[in-house]
Amino acid sequence: MAFESLSEKLSAVFKKLRGKGKLSEQDIKTAMREVRMALLEADVNYKVAKDFIAGVTERALGQEVMESLTPAQQVIKIVNDELTELMGGEEAARIRIKSKPPTVIMMCGLQGAGKTTHCAKLGKRFLKEGHRPLLVACDIYRPAAVDQLCVVGKQAGVPVFRLDGEKPEEIARQAYRHARDHGNDIIILDTAGRLHVDEELMQELARIKQTVEVDETLLVIDAMAGQDAVNVAKAFSENTGLDGVILTKLDGDTRGGSALSVRSVTGKPIKFAGVGEKLDDLEVFHPARMASRILGMGDVLTLIEKAQDAADEKKAEETAKRLLENKFDMNDMLDQLNQLKKMGGVGALISMIPGAAGKVDADKINESKQLVHIEAIIQSMTPAERAKPSIIDPKRKRRIAAGSGTKVEDVNRLLKQFEQMSKMMKQIKKNPKFLRGLGKMPGMPDLF
């Protein structure tokens, strides 16, 4: 989970502050030393961490905090404000779409950062917003790069322009003409990468920019590379002129140092964050929301947005009706699991709930992994068994367990939970006031 390590350390620092009541100057300085160590251990750039602590300390030692009735809360608010500013300010940086199409976006970066996949992710996002994007294969050097773009483009439902045997700048020129002729309002250029920053790479990017008018140059960098990611961002910013950054694999980086350093070192905003392997796993980077998440305050707005994206209103109404009519079966349960997966799973949702981060022990979060087993168990059932679980006898249980790679006890546990849910729904039908007890359903994981 992104920033998990940093969040835990900062939570520990602030817990000490809250326990002190009134704060002395020495208390604040001691806390800031611990915050600085936490930032450095999270792989934040040294100068960025030093300047950040200086800014927070100056404000924290002011009259506003020292004379406050809740000084610890004031310090946390200052850290939150400064973190938000460090990552780009209150407002999320957006892609500038020209009023006169097409808008040209050039994706650049080193090999292995995920440029090609994120071209498709970005294309799919624009498609959902009502645009007509076109992916352009300008990486003519990496083996199968063009084929890879065609595959992920097809998965995303976005057309791909390829021109074999031509130089990247000529491909970009022809793609621009194609887009104008076919009504594509956004062009996404997938350019070549290298294993390191070199002159040849920079010259190629410059030639593309001279050939077509590039409106946005986005650097795709791997968040897990830590300080190397920041150094790469700085080199590209100085040589090609960036408009923004896409951080990939942010979900796998428990430290998050690159996310906190990139904006300060390059002066360029992080516009998107890759938070998973699926083509839908691309989020607009909101500095204020991310700062809130780091400090364990949750991220309700993103949680609501994820719920809205994942929700199928018609299916939700049908499920509610089936619940009340006591017709809820294993197929319905599988649908609910898929909705949860679309939202990033239990672990991702917990990090967005105010006050939940850091208060849910590891064993409880690990229960979210049981969702994978539950899905496998249900998928190993026959249509008849899903529709009527009561027919599942010991012989069927053994077959389902073997087919799902689980144990018979796991199958029994799921069937028991389903039975308890069915009983509860019967009680609700008889007594609607029973709805108040929904949160205390026996047998189900109690995350909080």
From TrEMBL:
GO terms for cellular component: signal recognition particle. SUPFAM superfamilies: P-loop containing nucleoside triphosphate hydrolases (SSF52540), Signal peptide-binding domain (SSF47446). InterPro entries: AAA+_ATPase, P-loop_NTPase, Signal_recog_part_SRP54_M_sf, Signal_recog_particl_SRP54_hlx, Signal_recog_particle_SRP54_M, SRP, SRP54, SRP54_GTPase_dom. Gene3D superfamilies: P-loop containing nucleotide triphosphate hydrolases (3.40.50.300), Signal recognition particle SRP54, nucleotide-binding domain (1.20.120.140), Signal recognition particle, SRP54 subunit, M-domain (1.10.260.30). Residues 269-282 form the SRP54-type proteins GTP-binding domain. It catalyses: GTP + H2O = GDP + phosphate + H(+). GTP binds at residues 109-116, 190-194, 248-251. It is found in: Cytoplasm. Involved in targeting and insertion of nascent membrane proteins into the cytoplasmic membrane. Binds to the hydrophobic signal sequence of the ribosome-nascent chain (RNC) as it emerges from the ribosomes. The SRP-RNC complex is then targeted to the cytoplasmic membrane where it interacts with the SRP receptor FtsY. This is Signal recognition particle protein. It comes from Candidatus Ruthenibacterium merdavium.
